[in-house]
Amino acid sequence: RALIDGLRIVRGNAKDLVLPPAGSEAFIFLARRVGYTSDDWQAGAARLEADLAAHMANTRAFYERHFGSLSAASPGATALGNAPATRHASRGK
Question: Residue 66: is its pLDDT beyond 70?
């Protein structure tokens, strides 16, 4: 949630919540806004990048444990947005 709020501050609105490229000035500014501060701003941005990568890997592993592999679910799927929708009704709920 803090990252989304930080993006809103960096972008000035809530319309664009896409992360800026790692290493860019916008990414470094975002890292500072969400609390990744240090004497070296690039080091703070690198910590944010590492934390994001770990969180995304954990989320992907959770998804694959519960719903199956993204690549097996849809040929050519490379992102969560390309994965087919999963209905709870199909799981008996």
Answer: yes
